[in-house]
Sequence to fold (456 residues):
Amino acid sequence: MTRSFRLLAGSLVIAALAPMALAQGLDPERAQSLREGHMKLMGLNIGMLGAMAKEEQPYDAEMAAAAAGNLAALGSIDQRFYWVEGSSSEDLEESRALPAIWENMDDFNSKTEALHEAAMKMEEAAGTDLASLQAAMGPLGEACGSCHEDYRKPEE
Amino acid sequence: MIGRALGAAIAIILLAGGVGWMLTSPEPLPASAVEGPPGDPERGALVFAAAGCASCHVAPDTDIGEAPLLAGGMAFDSPFGTFHAPNISPSPQGVGDWSDAEIMDAVMRGVSPSGAHYYPALPYAAYAMADPQDMRDLVAHLRTLPPSSQENLPHEVPFPFSIRRGVGLWKALNLRQAWVIEDDLPETAARGRYLAEALGHCGECHTPRGPLGGLDHAQWLGGAPNPSGDGRIPNITPGGLKWSEGEIAYYLGTGFTPEFDTAGGEMAAVVSELAKLPDEDRAAIAAYLKAVPAIEPAAE
Fold:
C-alpha cells in the first residue's frame, strides 16, 4: 500500500464520517436558537423594506437596497447545519419547526430556495423605486408563507 | 282505553316522524336564485379566490397557482369524523357533468345532484348568503380549470353522524338567512361583511362551535381551538386583534404582520388567494373586522 493511497483512503473515511459526526455533534437546542436568530435577521431586514412599502417610512433607495441585499445574502446561506435531528417542535418546547421538515427535506429545501429567489428579485427591485419595492413584497411574503404554512407550528 | 292511548301514541310518533322527515329533507335553491345572466369566468376567478375554494379542494401538496387542479383528497379532522375534500374539477369524476343549478345547490344549499345532504365541512351555511350572480360567475370559472380523473375518497364519519339525513336538522339550525352582524354598515364595511361572512367564510375557523358543530354567533370571530390540535385560531375581533385597518389589509395581501412575521398554517393559503383580489376588497374586510363587536380575550 503506497503512502498516497493510504492518505487517500484515510481522507475518504474522514470525508464520509465528518458530516455524520457534525450532524450528530450539534446540540439541537443550540441549532434551534441559532436558526431562530437567522429568522430574526431576515425579519429585521424585511421590516426595513416593509416600513417603506407601507409608506410608514420615506422611501430611500440606498437603505432599501441595503436591506434587500442583506436579505438575499441571508437567503443564500446553506442551512444544512441548522436543521439537526432532534430539534423539532416534538423534541423541544421552544421549537416551532414541525417534524414534517425532516420527513420532506427535499420540499423544505426547495421552499428555502424559493425564498432565496424572491429575495434576489427584491434585491433588483428595492433600489429601483418605491413601486417596484411594493410590488416585490407580495411574492416575498408568499415565499415566507408557503414554508410557514406546511412547516411551522402555529403559535400557542 | 288502552287501544285509544296506543292509537294516539302511534299517531304522535307518525306525526313526529313526518315532521322530522320534512324538517330534514334537502331543499335546493328556488329557480329564481338560479336563473339569471350567464356567468363571467373572469369575474368568477375573483369570486373563486375570495371563497377560498382551492385552499381545500386542490390536490394535497400541490400549489394553487393560477389554474389549480381541484382533484380533492385533502383530509379534514373534526369532532364528528374525518372528511375528505371531493374532486370538483370539470371532469366526470368531478362536477363536469353537473348543471350550473346543481353546482349552485351544492355550494349554497349543501344538496347533491341526487338530492342528498352534504356535510357542513363544505361551508354552505356561509355561501348561502352569496350573491347568485357571483355564484354563476364562479361556476363559469370552475369550468375553465383543468380536469382531474381522481375518484373521491369516502368520509370517515361514525354513527350517528353517518346518517346524512340528520344534516337536515343541522341545516335548519345553521343555514344562514341573514348576516351575523346585522347592523347597517357603511358601504366599505358592508362589502367587507359580504366577503368575510359569505364568500370568505372566516367564521368557520375563527368562531367557536357549539356541541352540534354550529357556529356560536355570540362569540363571532372571537377565536377557537385549532381543529388540528395545535394552538388556537386567533380572535380577530377588535378585542383580540389590535392592528390598524391598514395593517390588516396589508397582512391579507402579503401575509406580513405589522412586525413582519408572516402568516402560517392554513392562513398562508387564505392570504395567497386573498392577494388576488383588488386592494379595495382587502380594505373592506379590514373595515368589517373593525365593525364587529369586540370579544374580550378572557371570554375566549
